[in-house]
Design a protein that fits this description.
The chain is α+β, with helices and mostly antiparallel strands. Helices cover 30% and strands 29% of the residues. It has three helices and four strands, in the order βαβββαα. A four-stranded mixed sheet has the order 1-4-3-2. A hairpin with a 2-residue loop joins strand 2 and strand 3. The chain is flat, with a radius of gyration of 18 Å.
Protein backbone atom coordinates (compact mmCIF):
# COMPACT_ATOMS: atom_id res chain seq x y z
CA UNK A 1 0.00 0.00 0.00
CA UNK A 2 1.35 3.39 -0.93
CA UNK A 3 0.16 6.14 1.39
CA UNK A 4 0.92 9.51 -0.18
CA UNK A 5 1.23 11.50 3.05
CA UNK A 6 3.29 8.90 4.91
CA UNK A 7 0.62 8.58 7.59
CA UNK A 8 -0.76 5.32 8.93
CA UNK A 9 -3.29 3.37 6.89
CA UNK A 10 -6.80 3.76 8.26
CA UNK A 11 -9.28 1.04 7.28
CA UNK A 12 -13.00 1.69 7.23
CA UNK A 13 -16.16 0.10 5.89
CA UNK A 14 -15.63 1.75 2.50
CA UNK A 15 -12.06 0.43 2.14
CA UNK A 16 -13.23 -2.77 0.50
CA UNK A 17 -14.28 -6.23 1.54
CA UNK A 18 -13.04 -9.74 1.30
CA UNK A 19 -15.20 -12.07 -0.77
CA UNK A 20 -15.63 -15.68 0.19
CA UNK A 21 -16.89 -18.01 -2.50
CA UNK A 22 -18.86 -21.00 -1.27
CA UNK A 23 -21.85 -23.07 -2.42
CA UNK A 24 -25.08 -21.06 -2.39
CA UNK A 25 -26.83 -23.55 -0.12
CA UNK A 26 -24.08 -23.12 2.49
CA UNK A 27 -24.45 -19.34 2.30
CA UNK A 28 -28.18 -19.68 2.99
CA UNK A 29 -27.48 -22.00 5.94
CA UNK A 30 -24.90 -19.66 7.45
CA UNK A 31 -27.07 -16.60 6.85
CA UNK A 32 -30.02 -18.22 8.64
CA UNK A 33 -27.87 -18.55 11.78
CA UNK A 34 -26.68 -14.93 11.82
CA UNK A 35 -27.82 -12.35 14.31
CA UNK A 36 -29.50 -9.43 12.51
CA UNK A 37 -26.81 -7.07 13.88
CA UNK A 38 -24.25 -8.94 11.74
CA UNK A 39 -26.18 -8.44 8.50
CA UNK A 40 -24.87 -5.51 6.46
CA UNK A 41 -26.80 -6.29 3.24
CA UNK A 42 -29.52 -8.91 3.23
CA UNK A 43 -29.26 -12.19 1.36
CA UNK A 44 -30.18 -11.85 -2.30
CA UNK A 45 -30.54 -14.20 -5.24
CA UNK A 46 -29.76 -12.42 -8.48
CA UNK A 47 -30.53 -14.08 -11.80
CA UNK A 48 -27.56 -13.31 -14.01
CA UNK A 49 -26.31 -14.43 -17.44
CA UNK A 50 -24.06 -17.13 -15.97
CA UNK A 51 -26.59 -18.34 -13.39
CA UNK A 52 -28.01 -17.44 -10.02
CA UNK A 53 -25.80 -15.37 -7.75
CA UNK A 54 -26.47 -15.86 -4.04
CA UNK A 55 -24.89 -12.96 -2.17
CA UNK A 56 -24.90 -11.43 1.30
CA UNK A 57 -22.68 -8.94 3.09
CA UNK A 58 -22.10 -9.85 6.73
CA UNK A 59 -20.05 -8.54 9.63
CA UNK A 60 -17.74 -10.84 11.60
CA UNK A 61 -17.10 -10.72 15.35
CA UNK A 62 -14.30 -8.16 14.84
CA UNK A 63 -16.56 -5.87 12.80
CA UNK A 64 -15.03 -6.61 9.40
CA UNK A 65 -17.44 -6.89 6.50
CA UNK A 66 -17.28 -9.94 4.26
CA UNK A 67 -19.09 -10.62 1.02
CA UNK A 68 -20.40 -14.19 0.76
CA UNK A 69 -20.91 -15.16 -2.89
CA UNK A 70 -22.08 -18.40 -4.42
CA UNK A 71 -19.28 -20.41 -5.99
CA UNK A 72 -21.64 -21.79 -8.65
CA UNK A 73 -21.78 -18.27 -10.12
CA UNK A 74 -18.75 -16.40 -8.80
CA UNK A 75 -16.02 -18.90 -9.73
CA UNK A 76 -16.99 -19.24 -13.42
CA UNK A 77 -17.56 -15.49 -13.77
CA UNK A 78 -14.12 -14.64 -12.37
CA UNK A 79 -12.49 -17.19 -14.67
CA UNK A 80 -14.32 -15.64 -17.63
CA UNK A 81 -13.26 -12.12 -16.65
CA UNK A 82 -9.53 -12.67 -16.23
CA UNK A 83 -6.79 -12.54 -18.81
CA UNK A 84 -4.35 -14.49 -16.59
CA UNK A 85 -1.69 -11.80 -16.97
CA UNK A 86 0.13 -10.34 -14.02
CA UNK A 87 -0.04 -6.67 -13.10
CA UNK A 88 1.83 -4.14 -15.23
CA UNK A 89 4.24 -3.03 -12.50
CA UNK A 90 5.90 -0.41 -14.69
CA UNK A 91 2.56 1.26 -15.44
CA UNK A 92 1.66 1.21 -11.75
CA UNK A 93 5.01 2.77 -10.81
CA UNK A 94 4.50 5.52 -13.42
CA UNK A 95 1.02 6.26 -12.10
CA UNK A 96 2.20 6.43 -8.47
CA UNK A 97 5.16 8.62 -9.40
CA UNK A 98 3.00 10.94 -11.49
CA UNK A 99 0.74 11.58 -8.49
CA UNK A 100 3.41 11.71 -5.78
CA UNK A 101 5.13 14.81 -4.49
CA UNK A 102 8.68 15.10 -5.90
CA UNK A 103 10.21 14.47 -2.45
CA UNK A 104 8.20 11.21 -2.11
CA UNK A 105 9.43 9.67 -5.38
Amino acid sequence: IAVADGGPVSWSTWSGRFAISMPGDRIKEAYAKLSPVNVVHELQELHEKLGILVIAIVRDVDGYETCLVSSEFFDPSTREATDWKGPDWDARRELIDSRAKPEDR
